[in-house]
Amino acid sequence: MKAKIWSLVAVFVLTLGVVGCASGNSPDGRDQGNVILSITDFDGLPIQVSVNGIANGGFLQIGRLTISNISADPTATTSTLMDVEIERYEVGFTRADQGTRTPQPTVRGIFGIVSVNGTLQYDNLPIMSAEEFTNQPLSDLLFANGGIDTETGSEAILLNLNLKFYGRTLGGDRVETQTAANFTVQFVQ
Fold this sequence. Notes:
It is a single chain. The protein has helices at residues 2-22, 51-55, and strands at residues 35-43, 48-50, 59-71, 84-95, 106-114, 118-129, 156-169, 174-176, 180-188. The chain is mostly beta strands. The protein has a single domain (30-188), classed as Immunoglobulin-like (Sandwich), CATH 2.60.40. The strands form two sheets. Strands 2, 4, 5, 7, 8 and 9 form a six-stranded mixed sheet that branches. A three-stranded antiparallel sheet has the order 1-3-6, with no helix packed on it. The longest helix has 21 residues, at 2-22. It is elongated.
């Protein structure tokens, strides 16, 4: 009797292990839903921006950005359940100069569907709004605030912009792009 119970427990544990492996994702998490979501192209991000020009209204934008939805196994059968609905994107910042203060990360909701093995293009994608230029460290560069980064004494701030998109396959799996890092922009008066 004990042997029969242990046999049933062993079969149960083995079954859980197989199911867990079948539904698992790669260690880097990129093939959730059996797809890889990737920022494959962008164009039109200015290399220099006037804080005083944008703070009075407007956005810092990327002219064109393309996201690809790639089947993690190109030889496997695909379905529309692998299409990805984009939900939001995040812009993070690091300093590319000797300063340490950075703007707060920005998260924006967005909509779009990327078909499996297809692409989605966004035109004039907002990266920063005018409101974000009224917060430190960029607000230091406003003429009304003296036009100088109070941390470094410079009339310019160099920031790396890091971009990441998040979504969900129509089958319900969460997916995200790798961070597209280090779009460097010089912010001036």
